[in-house]
Each structure stands twice: as structure tokens, then as C-alpha cells.
Amino acid sequence: MKTAWYKEPWAYLVFGLPLISVVVGTTVFFIANKNADTVVVDDYYKKGKTINQDIRKYKLSQKLGIRFDMQISNNEVILKPTGIEKTFPVLNVNFYHVTIAERDFSVKLTPDGNGWMRQSFDQNVEGKWRVLVTPYDNKWKMQTTVALPQSQFSEFELQY
Q1: Confidence (pTM)
Q2: Alpha-carbon gap, residue 30 to 25, rounded angstroms
């Protein structure tokens, strides 16, 4: 005697597993599209081409002999010029969090009586950060990656 297909337990296994995988796959697809990764750049080729243009600014900072010792603690950033050129009217310092773009911020540093560049800020800076320093006229750039906070002065290691 034959039974109806819907009364067979194997029918639910044969049809149920593909149906479950389609539902899970569709759900993952919508979640991935709704929560896109902010680190990934849409036009990576064009971004890669501009990197070569930006390297000239990093090389200019090396050629000018610009160097700093850096300390970032207690919500204050201090840059102590140690290179050939030691006077700057204003420096722009941009902090880029390595994974969370919403935490990015920037500060403008001005010299104090010692010639050190310093500024206070309100953001929480614990973790790994990419720090980019540029002058007010944006002629050169310096960039490094650091784990913050730092209680001691450390050399600003130039990275491209």
C-alpha cells in the first residue's frame, strides 16, 4: 500500500534541508548588505592609484628632516619636534581607529612655551590607532600606527 508523500518522514528531510539553507543564505545576504564593513573601499583601484601620489608627501617630510617624539595620554596629545625643522605654527593631527570609523577625530596642535605641540581632546583613545600629522598648508604628511594610551614619549615612526 502506498502512502501520500507528505506522510513520509524522508520527504521532509529531502525538501526541508534545501529550504532551510535557502532561508539561512537569504538572511545572511541581507544582514551582510545592511551592515557593510566600513574598512572596505568601493573603488579600491582608484584608491590604490592615489596612494602613489600621497607617497611624495611622506618622502618630503623625510627630506625636510621633520621628526617628532609623541605622547598621548590623559586625553592630551603632545608632539615634541626633534628633527631639523622644529617650529610649526599649527599641526593637524587626525586619529583614525583601525576598525571603527565612527571613532575617528582630529585635533589642531599649537606650540606651547617649550615649542612642543599640544592639545587636549574629549575622545576615548584606548586601542590601536593610525595617527596622521600634516601642517596647516598640507605640504607634507607623517603617519604611524600606535597602541594608545602612551604614558612615555616615543619616536613617531614614519609609515606609508
Answers
A1: 0.68
A2: 9
